[in-house]
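README, section 4: Worked example with a bound small molecule

Sections 1 through 3 covered apo chains. Here we extend the same pipeline to holo records, where the ligand is supplied as SMILES alongside the sequence. The molecule in this example is magnesium ion. Nothing else about the input changes; the structure line simply encodes the ligand pose together with the chain.
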Amino acid sequence: MGERLRRILPPVLTVILFLIVWEAGVRLSGIEDWLLPAPSGIAISFAESWELVQRHTWPTLQEATLGFVLGIGVALLLAVLIDLFPWLRRGVYPLLIGSQTVPIIAIAPLLILWFGYGLFPKVLIVALVTFFPVVVNTVDGLSSADSDQVRLLKSMGANDWQIFRLVRFPQALPSFFSGMKIAATYGILGAVIAEWLGASEGLGVFLIRSQNSFAADQVFVAIVVITFWSLVLFSLVQLIARFATPWVYIEKKENRKGEKET
Amino acid sequence: MKLKLESLEQSYPVAQIRRQVIDQITLTVEEGTFISIIGPSGCGKSTLFNIISGLERPTAGRVIKDGREITGETGYVSYMLQKDCLFPWRTVLENAVLSAEVAGENKRKALERAEELLSVFGLKGYANEYPARLSGGMRQRAALLRTVMANQDLWLLDEPMGSLDALTRERMQDWLLGILEQFPKTVLFITHSIDEAVYLSDRVVVFSPRPARIKDELTIHLPRPRKRELMTSESFLQAKRWLWEKLHEEE
Ligand SMILES: Nc1ncnc2c1ncn2[C@@H]1O[C@H](COP(=O)(O)OP(=O)(O)OP(=O)(O)O)[C@@H](O)[C@H]1O
Ligand SMILES: [Mg+2]
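The generated complex, written as structure tokens:
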């Protein structure tokens, strides 16, 4: 417990210090509120617009989670297919890597054009941004199976499907989850960007409206909320990872112990 | 006769030429014997095990087990590779039942059987630990438990004690002898330690440098069960000296 406290305390102190400097800076310099509000001002604005923010948060969360689940599901399926069929790896995987350079924000208007202003195109945009890190990481993980572990299984008479199920898949899980963690940080952001392009509600809409009315304090409120929910999503993935791949964390802990001893 | 290797040959294409690794190896192994293989590093010992286990097909020759040809076929031996190859995502117990799972046996029954064996393998209380938590000796024993659980009557052990410190290694040797009394098997055992080979074996086969040929072999007449005191006896030392000279003599 003491060790954990010692890890958490420094960043917390840094944040507190930062907020104090910010507050003091704004007050002493007398900078305009609509340019840079003080943390206290943001807090007040947060309290005042609480219900409005809530109303705009739920649609965004809905788009983000649906898109996240869709993106990850498709990514996992495609990664497994790419691993199982060499011609898919040769034919599709390079394109997949290449297509990562296509900015989603440039494709988004197209999706809006095709599918309208409803929920679906936004879910699709989130799915697109979360899809790539997961598929790439999982394919990498699947193809980096330890050859001796595979040989051991083969010597027992295992077939290809058993080798996949007993070695390749479980050993790819940590990579899958690191891809998913990256995806988790993109999820909410993807939904917000999708909303910029056309929506009547959501944090993206709230952001644009705040900007248009020169309400910097509300922009900050939106930033806080987006960060908070991104963190929640990230922590959720982390929790699932801990549950699904306990050995990874045990190994890390043992390594740390080993380092301390030497 | 448990196993018969007939004129095995293995070579690989390496940069335009063929690299010969196994050269005319013929060996018969009687049921229930413990045979050690010693030879210089890189001579082809592991390659021979790969062939016997069916992981590799020899370029020539046959592998016959219980009178049936099994050349290039897997699933007839229990092979403990040079690395312990414990799956880090499986607990000790789950690692132990790997072969049962591959064979499509009832997993719950296999788990029960493995659990009963834990204390024999000095792993009591570690059933649900991940390999990362185990010491080197324990990992080796867990790998051996997995080997035992495979229910094969022929074991190929590739330097199972190579990574252990001297003291743990001696303990593991005695422990292995005990295990084999409990579960009599036919064992082929690769080692770099002459002491270990003499102490454990009924026969010791000496390989030449690559390409591996059988240079000579020695039958060990020490009484069983083996005791540590034997290691200072005249016949033990004689066997050691003979093997040492064979291993180091020029071609
Ligand atoms: N697939 C392969 N292609 C080319 N050369 C190979 C291949 N497999 C093995 N060799 C060569 O065969 C030789 C014997 O390898 P092997 O692993 O059998 O040696 P070893 O006797 O087990 O050595 P060690 O005592 O170090 O474990 C090595 O020189 C290796 O480079
Ligand atoms: Mg070897």
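What to look for in the output: The radius of gyration of chain B is 18 Å. The first strand of chain B starts at residue 3 and ends at 14.

Section 5 describes how to batch many such records.
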